[in-house]
# Entry
Amino acid sequence: MDSTVGILGILLIGVTVVVGGVLALRLHAFLALLLGALVVGALTPSAAIERAAVRKDAVRVYSSDAASREVTLRLTEKQGARPGMLYQVVRTDPASGRFQPVADLQIERFEEATDSAGKTTQRAVATLRGAGGVVPLSGDFVIHPMALRSARRLAGQNVGERIAAGFGSTCASIGILIAMASIIGKCLLDSGAADRVVRSALRVTGERGAPVAFLLSGFLLAVPVFFDTVFYLMIPLGKAMGMRSGKNYLLFVLTIVAGGTMAHSLVPPTPGPLLVAEQLNVDIGTMILGGTIVGLFTSTFGYFFAQFLNRRHNLPLRDSADLSLAELEKISQRTDAELPPTWLSLVPILLPVVLLGGFTIMEATGWEASPAQRPWTDALSDKNIALIIAALIAMATLVWKRRTSREELSASVRSSLMSGGEIILITAAGGAFGAVLQQTGVASLINELPRSSPAILITLAFLITTAIRTAQGSATVAMITAVGVLSGLAGQGLGFHPVYLALAIGCGSKPIAWMNDSGFWVITKMSGMTEVEGLRYITPLTASMGVVGLLVTLIGATFFPFAP
# Structure
């Protein structure tokens, strides 16, 4: 069953259950992902689960010398190994299909080695223990005895226990983050802080620079606020600007989309990129920086593509379900007196970026905290602490500016947690689905692909995500499903930093927006577009931005691999 056909068969069945559950049965994404996890978990044999777990934690034999009984391992001190530690060499038993110990090793020392490309790496030198034992071969697996016992214990669990474990570990990683991000977004909207950000940008750029203001505001607001909500917030301003100028309404709509949709898939703490970063073991600060860089490239391309479409097409202002043309007059005449100041409106958005990304940049430049500073820097750079502080400031902004009562604040927070709770459930179910997918051994299958260039795996990640997104419509579900297939590759000697794999998955979630995408309907109905106009303008815009993001990611991985 560990054959390529068996693994691909289980993978195909699992993805079909999830996509078919959402499209054909109209199941909620949470139920579809859990159903997919249940089917994949039930189909995966215990021997395959054990093998996948062993391969995840094991290291490879680099070389061995029968005369000296010394074995060189692809193992470093960063992986927790120390001189004197005991390891076991394991091989697959043809009869049972499980790994069996064939020799015991003891770590003696670590040596530096330089490969043909001039890169220096650390390797462990171990000796065979006991008079007997099989001399390890190049390519054999070496694993710590505790890890081997853990793999066997996992293989003995029933499918419900394994799903619950994947669900719980994902909740532990992202539950607080999504809850705090929901509170931040809701308080930004209720306090008027989000409105202030957009208006301040328009004040700086002027009417001629309104498209740039919409682009940047959409990108910035989509970091803590879900894209649908960002579009709800900004489209009245876009309509008001279109009415005031009498032209360029299509440009205003498309620049809002170009900014908000890319941050939605690339920059945490939005759930999609947040889970992808967690599953690929990418530091959240690194993901924020990488997502921002790629997102700015793609959004800039989106801006010029929107200009191109706007010169050739005209989108008239129409009445829509959310807002009549008469109501636009009221919005355009609102004063700024009841809105929070710009600096306070930006704090809940920028503070997590500064805390998470700032320390990452400082450490990359060689800065190290002193022993007295370390407890504080560790606490402030923790993703949960950073989002909690930002949420408290957002709540304070709502209370201070709107003179909100405790009951109103409680209602606002309760509403945000209800919507955030649904996202947590979907994301955690996606984590459970990803966990059982890894247990099939799909990571080892993908790991056998040629590694001569990062382009192969990065493009594969993009295409897998694109296929799932096109089939079932949700960018977040597509990212969750794709990272479940690819997450086992993290730490497997990719030759480039896994953040590039995460960025490729994010970019792959953009193509192709059409009628099965809730965001497509939000954009068309709120802006007054027809379905044909949406396919003509929105679909090519988001698809082309995704491809540009892939190209930027490939260039970064090729010339700046930052391999860990």
